[in-house]
Design brief:
Elements lengths: L6 E6 H6 L23 H15 L3 E7 L12 E3 L2 E5 L6 H14 L4 E4 L3 H8 L5 E4 L1 H24 L4 H4 L2 H12 L1
Parallel strand pairs: 1-2, 1-5, 2-4, 5-6
Antiparallel strand pairs: 3-4
Length: 184
């Protein structure tokens, strides 16, 4: 599929993180101010980014937007991690306005847009205007992430029970020739 035509997935980062206990245990509330990294949200953000990358792979162009005012360094630049874009709003700009701007741009380009947030203001704003926009509540989005986790775990468990032999990995024709040699 042409990447420029893929649906855009916008994720309201802190809104999704705060909507579920999934990321709570990863927030370091008692960070050491003497340490190099005093941002308590690092691990939770990394987990969300990984989850969104897994969810989006091949289906969406994903952008996770965080409110820069909630970070130790509020003037972070956008980065590309795990196949998606991570954006921190600038000082004086809310994550809401970044999400609204990105959704509007995508709609003007004729792209479909999905936005994962439970923020009612964003949900109302992005729903207005031309173009296809789907709002997904943060809790439902996290449930979908958890469903994917379960599927991956089941698949990994199934793989660990299957012992692959060399015979499993060669073509039937080659297997027939080898059996012929062994019987000779």
């Amino acid at each position: 599929m042409d990447k420029s035509k893929r649906e855009l997935l916008l994720v309201d980062g802190y809104n999704v993180m705060g909507a579920t206990p999934r990321y709570e245990g990863l927030i370091d509330e008692h960070t050491d101010p003497k340490s190099f990294d005093t941002d308590p949200f690092v691990r939770a953000r990394e987990a969300l980014i990984s989850d969104v990358a897994t969810y989006a792979q091949g289906r969406f162009d994903a952008v996770v937007v965080f409110d820069g005012a909630s970070n130790a360094d509020p003037d972070r630049n956008a980065t590309h991690e795990a196949g998606l874009t991570v954006v921190f709003s600038r000082t004086g700009e809310s994550a809401d306005s970044v999400i609204e701007r990105l959704a509007t741009q995508a709609r003007q380009e004729g792209r479909m847009v999905s936005v994962a947030t439970s923020d009612n203001t964003i949900r109302a704003t992005i729903g207005a205007g031309p173009g296809d926009v789907t709002a997904i509540s943060s809790k439902i989005f996290v449930r979908e992430l958890e469903r994917i986790d379960t599927e991956v775990a089941v698949e990994e468990q199934d793989r660990s029970h299957h012992k692959a032999t060399i015979e499993d990995r060669i073509s039937p024709d080659m297997r027939k020739k080898l059996w012929h040699i062994l019987r000779s």
